[in-house]
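Annex B. Sample input.
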Amino acid sequence: MTRPFRRRVLYLPGYDPIPPRRYRELYRREGLEQAAISGYGLTFGPRQDRTGFGWGIGGDFDGGKTEVEVEVLLWADLVQGSMGQSIAATYGQLLRTAWIYIGSGALFRLMQLRRGPVLAALYPVVVLILQLLAALTLGAVLGGLTGWGRRGCCPMAAGSACRSR
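Annex B, continued. Sample output.
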């Protein structure tokens, strides 16, 4: 008896509005139809490790056995897990990533690609920088209006040295 061929499939659906269970049902339905057309056996069940979301598949192809475990890696979970829990941590990650891209030369190679991949890669960076500039500008404007920007002036402090104009 030969050992079955084993494979682990990691599926990244991206920001897809279709829930992961829909992918399992689609794979199950279409897989069974293809198995009937091609003349091989296909079975579905839970994954062996039972962590995360996914399913197990067994196949019988001309006497050869196949075992597959499909795990759906939700993009939102991956991003959420990689991001820090604060705004400062997000900007720190931005700086570290920029340093890696520039230092390795990947940024310059990226700029030679088509417009689509370049926009997709740089969009988060541009949005974060614009968000930072907007926050600093708003802070400066509000600070100027309330007097927080003058030397020795803190309107909230007791005995403030601020003089009204």
